[in-house]
Amino acid sequence: MPDTIAISGASGHIGGRVARTLADAGVGLRLLGRDPGRLPELPGSTAAVADFADAGTVATALRGVGTFFFVSATESANRAEQQAAVVRAAVDAGVARIVYLSFVGAAPDCTFTFGRDHWHTEQAIRASGLDFTFLRDNQYQDIIPHFADADGVIRGPAGDGKVAAVTRADVADCAAAVLTSPDHHGATFDLTGPRAFTLTTAAAEMTRILGRPYRFAEETVDEAYASRASYQAPRWEVDGWVSTYTAIAQGDLETVTDSVAVLSGHPATDFTDYLATLAGKP
Questions:
Q1: Is the pTM of this model over 0.85?
Q2: From CA 46, how far away is CA 56, in angstroms rounded?
């Protein structure tokens, strides 16, 4: 199998951290993106144009690659179909293994509507005959502070449900470890933080550590749709936003695993430690 590892989303938080980690380890990389000018310049790496909306560019970009770290495309109405075409392009290019960044609880009818695309993509990868590993991450700790509006209020129908949120950095460390390991064939790992917490708890911890007031305000599902109507987003997108909270309410995201520690070799980051980093505290 060729030694080169391809990384999609290499200009983003997770793909970029994975790329830097592997470059530091001397791994040969093919960095993929729609705009190569936005990709990092790293030793041992080359850049290639890969637009998930044009599977032909993906097939060209992946030629000569052994392992493909597949970071999913931005959410869209046809993301599942686009990503199935990406899998076919990987087969056509002669890729041997896909490490796919999926989502906890991915299923055709999971509560979090964006998670359904991940299930369809996983099925396309399974049907492709390629070797694979699925990394199913929980919600990102990094995003939770951005749930709050300008007044520090997190609004949504999450109730007293809990989320075992994980940092993007921990997910990237797990991905780098899997990409450079000969193991984990056909395995699926749920990547979570070290504990599950409610959004009420998150708001209290954000208040204490970030030094400004936050609170969680429960909404009904109808209220959640109404409060987001001003964005004039398409229905599929609003469904994803609202189901972020209903998935928490239904307990879909509360299970804690030790996968981060097992794969990365270090403990999963606690939300309070992540917040301290944001606040610049030791």
A1: yes
A2: 18
